[in-house]
Specification:
Blueprint (H helix, E strand, L loop, with lengths): L9 H9 L3 H19 L2 E11 L25 H13 L4 E6 L7 H15 L2 E5 L5 H10 L3 E3 L7 H7 L8 H14 L2 E8 L6 H14 L3 E6 L7 H8 L1 H4 L7 H14 L9 H17 L4 E2 L6 H4 L15 H14 L3 E2 L11
Parallel strand pairs: 1-2, 1-7, 1-8, 2-3, 3-4, 4-5, 5-6
Helix pairs in contact: 1-8, 2-11, 3-4, 4-5, 5-7, 8-11, 11-12
The structure holds S-adenosyl-L-homocysteine and iron/sulfur cluster.
Iron/sulfur cluster binds next to loops.
């Protein structure tokens, strides 16, 4: 066990990121599962994901709903539709809903505040927001309206790579994302962040730094998903036409994603870590299962009404697009029970050990 970070350090993380020997990796998987059990227990908490709008003013080079994708039909759910969907989440036994969208200027901050208040009073669920970069005023308004958590991935801590992926006047800024995360912590949000694994030109060193940053930021939730190339995006085109140079960087495979989850569990033992939808998209049920067995403790079932779900086209092949909400739910409960774990009841807040 000497290679394990009592508290993980950069060199140890890098060593494991580069390790491909299955026999040796068993040690990592076992340790990650043990730490998961000790710190967050056997419950797998479900967070109902509602994709409330696919309008976005940003142009992230990897994302299918970027503003330049003119061929996509855009939608914005009404207040009533969002609240009805949250009530359905309540019926299914979820303790939380996540309201996610592009950065949509068409949704007034006051409308979002109203929706948060209504979900809290009618469904009594924890409300998580994932609405991208927002002003301090909006973040304060929504906190006062009752929002509990906010998810904002920093995507990669490699400044050069980040700049390559986010160009143009309104582009995401790494420093802006980090300072929003810190400000939200000050406001009292539970805060989640995360990264994408296997972006073209991403290095192992940068992922080791990402994991160190997760720890330094003391994140409550950490989302780690593989890069899923979208053919209608600039990055998707680079991915398919420069296979050779891309293949030298970190692979966007289920194995690599799960390894980063396991290392993150060791570095941040108390954090809530989902087995992401992006992982299930490229690796199916087996990958999701392995991820839960190697550090993860959360699943975020997609409960967006079917008529909108197909248009939330961040990346192709999202596993849940064709299934109705009840089917997805039953599949997920079955998966959790098949590995001897327990569907979590209640909000599933981060629990601090001391
Ligand atoms: N607009 C908000 C929330 C929606 S996007 C925001 O950007 O924060 C949610 C996440 O989808 C992003 O953080 C990004 O990590 C992920 N994403 C976008 N395109 C992707 C792709 N092609 N492959 C994998 N993840 C992607
Ligand atoms: Fe918009 Fe988020 Fe996609 Fe960037 S990742 S284009 S901000 S939805």
């Amino acid at each position: 066990m000497s290679r394990f970070l009592s508290i993980m350090v950069y060199e140890e993380i890098l060593y494991w990121l580069r390790e491909n020997n299955e026999e040796k990796l068993k040690e990592l998987w076992e340790k990650a599962d043990l730490v998961r059990r000790q710190f967050v227990g056997d419950e797998v908490y479900l967070r109902g994901l509602i994709e409330i709008s696919n309008y976005c003013s940003k142009n992230c080079s990897y994302c299918g709903i970027r503003v330049s994708n003119k061929s996509l039909k855009r939608y914005r759910m009404s207040k009533d539709e969002i609240i009805d969907t949250a009530l359905l989440a309540k019926e299914l036994g979820y303790g939380t809903v996540v309201l996610q969208s592009g950065e949509d200027p068409g949704f007034l901050p006051e409308e979002i505040a109203y929706i948060i208040g209504d979900i809290k009073s009618k469904a009594g669920l924890a409300v998580t927001l994932s609405l991208g970069e927002q002003s301090r005023e909006n973040l304060k308004l929504w906190k006062r309206a009752g929002a509990d958590r906010y998810l904002l991935k920093f995507e990669t801590s490699d400044e050069r790579l980040f700049k390559k992926l986010h160009r143009g006047p309104s582009a995401k800024k790494l420093a802006g994302r980090i300072s929003q995360i810190l400000y939200m912590k000050e406001l009292g949000y539970e805060v989640g962040s995360g990264i994408i694994i296997g972006l073209p030109y991403q290095t192992y060193e940068s992922i080791a730094k990402d994991i160190v940053l997760f720890k330094e930021m003391d994140l409550d939730m950490i989302g780690i998903g593989p890069y899923v190339p979208h053919p209608l995006t600039p990055l998707g085109k680079i991915y398919s036409s420069h296979k050779e140079s891309v293949s030298k960087s970190v692979p966007n495979t289920p194995e690599m994603t799960i390894k980063v989850v396991a290392l993150t569990r060791l570095a941040c033992p108390e954090s809530n870590i989902p087995a992401t939808t992006a992982l299930a998209t490229i690796g199916g049920v087996e990958a999701r299962k392995l991820c839960l067995l190697r550090g993860a403790n959360i699943i975020m079932p997609n409960i967006t009404p079917l008529k909108y779900r197909v248009y939330y086209d961040i990346y192709p092949g999202k596993t849940c697009s064709i299934k109705n909400i009840q089917d997805t739910h039953e599949d997920i409960i079955q998966l959790i029970e098949s590995i001897g774990r327990i569907p979590g009841v209640g909000r599933g807040d981060r629990v601090r050990q001391n």
